[in-house]
Amino acid sequence: MLIVLPPSETKAWGGDGPALDVEKLSFPSLNPVRRELLRIVSGMTDVQARKSLGLSEKQLDEAAANRELLTSPTMPAILRYTGVLYDALDAPTLPAPALDRLVIGSALFGLVRATDQIPHYRLSGGSKLPRSTKTMKARWGARITRVLSAESGLIVDLRSGTYQQLGPVPGAVTVRVEKNGKVVSHFNKHYRGLVARELAIVASGITSTDDVIRILAEAGIELKKRSDDQLCLEI
């Protein structure tokens, strides 16, 4: 089983890993797009970064970090991303086999495994790069879909809509968190983190949507089946 997580806008700074080595990232078929995006993003001026990435004057340290993408220190991707979902996931307490089941969607890298070493960066799935009419979806095309579809076993796709669009996975199990029939952003992220944690720890024997429902019920998370591949948590 593979659990696909969304990235986060906020990321930890620093790291003690070596500079980015694209050749060491998982899913090497994504490298051509990665290299092109790294070239463009690391070459942005402050003015371009403010326009393309929606940065304020106080966030220009993000633009500076992008210019150092190829030389700045790295850390495991699962520790680089921060925020509500990653707080609930509590990756530092997960056993190694659980980390092996986690993959993170990324506008810059397409997909990375939890232990892939990546630098601090700023780029989102909706970013419009300078001097280009190409969307992030168009840049990634069907590459992410092909990579995920080639994985064996069940895929639980917990990415947000923007990142699912970068590489849809037909048949993947999805989870919505709703209140009164509407998706709630903050709790959506929190519960997705809890869902990812429980599934990553157990994993063995999870081959269907019904297995997902059963395992999470045992952990006190009650899901309703909306369809063969869509589950809903009502809070």
Which helices and strands, and how do they pair?
Blueprint: E1 2-5, H1 31-42, H2 46-53, H3 60-67, E2 75-76, H4 77-80, H5 84-89, H6 96-99, E3 102-106, E4 110-113, E5 117-118, H7 136-140, H8 143-149, E6 155-157, H9 161-166, E7 173-179, E8 182-183, H10 185-202, H11 209-218, E9 224-225, E10 230-234
Parallel strand pairs: 1-3, 1-6, 6-7, 7-10
Antiparallel strand pairs: 2-5, 3-4, 7-8, 9-10
Task: Considering the chains and any ligands shown, give keywords for the structure.
10 strands; alpha/beta; YaaA; 235 residues; eight-stranded mixed beta sheet
Question: What does the model show?
Answer:
This protein is of the alpha/beta class and 235 residues long. It has one domain (2-234). Helices cover 37% and strands 15% of the residues. It is built from 11 helices and 10 strands. The strands form 2 sheets. Strands 1, 3, 4, 6, 7, 8, 9 and 10 form an 8-stranded mixed beta sheet that branches. Strand 9 and strand 10 form a beta hairpin. The radius of gyration is 18 Å and the shape is globular.
